[in-house]
Model the fold of this input.
Amino acid sequence: MALRKTHEKARIVQFADDGRTLPDGSKIIYAENDEKIVLYHKHPLERGTSYVYDRKSGRITVNGKEGTNNDKKLMIKLGGYMLDNVHDYELVTVSVTQKGQPG
Amino acid sequence: MSLEVSGIVPHGQAHRIGTAPTSGNRLGAIKIVLDALNIRGPVTLTKTPGVHLNQSIADTLHSIQLLQPNSLQSEAIRTLGFSNSVLTLVTADEDNRRKIKARLGEVAHSVLDPSIVSNLEKVFGAPFDEVMVDDNGALIVLNGTKEIEKSLVEE
Done:
């Protein structure tokens, strides 16, 4: 079943320390499954921005709205900013599965 | 309402840490990501057994255990649909940086003009391993350990 497969494959990568922020004070969470790549970016006291890249169609949505190539570049830039400011040992991977399914 | 955490305690013994209330903020961020991935309803976030927990993960588990939600947070957790959910962490030794770089390369690849990609791949004789974007938004193509000058991409 497609839904089950999606759930088994989903992963989230985030800082192990909840209090850890990037140098500009923001936080980024990365997630992926077979269909999508997600970056969620949030500054304190501001609404977060969710970048969702569809791996099959190559299209991007930003906070649910259709995005452009410039949005893709911004997503990549944010991802690069995250990678430039984090070590692997600071990250945790969260495996996401529906309850009752194997993780 | 709470998350549950199962895993290996820092001294290596398999241990069910059990139900562990956590903050609404953490759940809020995770929930947004789950929504983006079209994941609905109760979820299990699980940690692979038998992996070594580094101090960061141990600290995270510790902090999750200690957090007690206030009434507003409990309401937020309930509203977010995280009742009966389980949080499971995977080892940090997954080379997350490499994985994320590769996925970002996927996104970057979709930005490139296909004809430029095709020409560059002919020149270098192999598909690109990674495509990244530098601080100025210029595309950088990586092939193995060799960085192809971005000027080539821009030509």
Notes: The two ends of chain A are 16 Å apart (CA to CA).
